[in-house]
UniProtKB/TrEMBL annotation:
This is 7-carboxy-7-deazaguanine synthase. GO terms for molecular function: 4 iron, 4 sulfur cluster binding; carbon-nitrogen lyase activity; magnesium ion binding; S-adenosyl-L-methionine binding. The gene is queE. Pathway: Purine metabolism; 7-cyano-7-deazaguanine biosynthesis. Homodimer.
Length: 237
């Protein structure tokens, strides 16, 4: 992984770059993609599968995070024949001031850029111009986080109204389904995907079977975790 030179200002805090692989979740599931995984998060979900991006009690920030110049990220992407680039985390929007610059460089290089976010920080107009789609994943009660931290309704409404957002919810059980029904009604969310929590093939398949009927009943789309079905919990896939 490339590190920045002293004094370099146009940088992002990066956990890892990987791909080509497949987008494993949501509307773009199965599409070939490159991933830019950024470090840092403003939430601490109990089931998080990328704690190395934020849990500095268990992981070393110095070992897991690199200050990487935007030009180096764009150069890496330019060397790979992949249309879709997914910016993920952690929570990418906590570095939103640099995201617009990075996305603009990637788009100029012929890429389509999607951004994955927990929906707690609203996008500004400049970012909306260059991101092709926002995969917004608000956290439900099963995350173990108090509602006032995990659900920012004004930000969610901004994503809803921008015309570029799909909403994806991790479901851990019946209580999450009940909360999602209420939240969808309250915020008039139209494009909703549900996904089981799990980092093994068995847990993902079992979760898909449990979610199938509720998804059909409530008019939701159902997504697997394709990368888990293919490679288990292997990092960088």
């Amino acid at each position: 992984m490339t590190t920045s030179t002293p004094g370099q200002s146009r940088v992002l805090q990066v956990a890892e770059l990987f791909g080509p692989t497949f987008q494993g979740e949501g509307p773009s599931c199965g599409q070939r993609a490159l991933f830019v995984r950024l470090s840092g998060c403003n939430l601490d979900c109990g089931w998080c599968d990328t704690p190395y991006t934020w849990d500095w009690e268990r992981f070393s920030r110095d070992k897991q995070t690199v200050d990487m110049p935007l030009a180096a990220i764009a150069s890496w992407a330019a060397g790979l024949d992949t249309d879709l680039i997914v910016i993920t985390g952690g929570e990418p929007m906590i570095q939103h001031r640099r995201l617009r610059e990075l996305a603009a460089e990637l788009v100029a290089g012929g890429h389509r850029v999607e951004l994955e976010t927990n929906g707690t920080i609203a996008p500004d107009a400049a970012l909306l111009e260059v991101i092709s789609a926002f995969n917004v994943s608000p956290k439900l009660n099963g995350s173990g986080i108090p509602e006032q931290r995990r659900l920012r309704r004004q930000a969610l409404a901004a994503f809803r109204d921008c015309g570029k957002a799909e909403f994806k919810f991790v479901i851990t059980g019946p209580a999450d389904i009940e909360e999602l029904v209420q939240l969808q009604t309250e915020l008039s969310l139209q494009r909703v995907w549900v996904m089981p929590e799990g980092t093994t093939e068995a847990s993902v398949l079992a979760g898909l079977r449990e979610l199938a009927e509720p998804a059909l009943t409530h008019g939701w789309n159902l997504t697997s975790r394709l990368h888990v079905l293919l490679w288990g919990d292997e990092r960088g896939r």
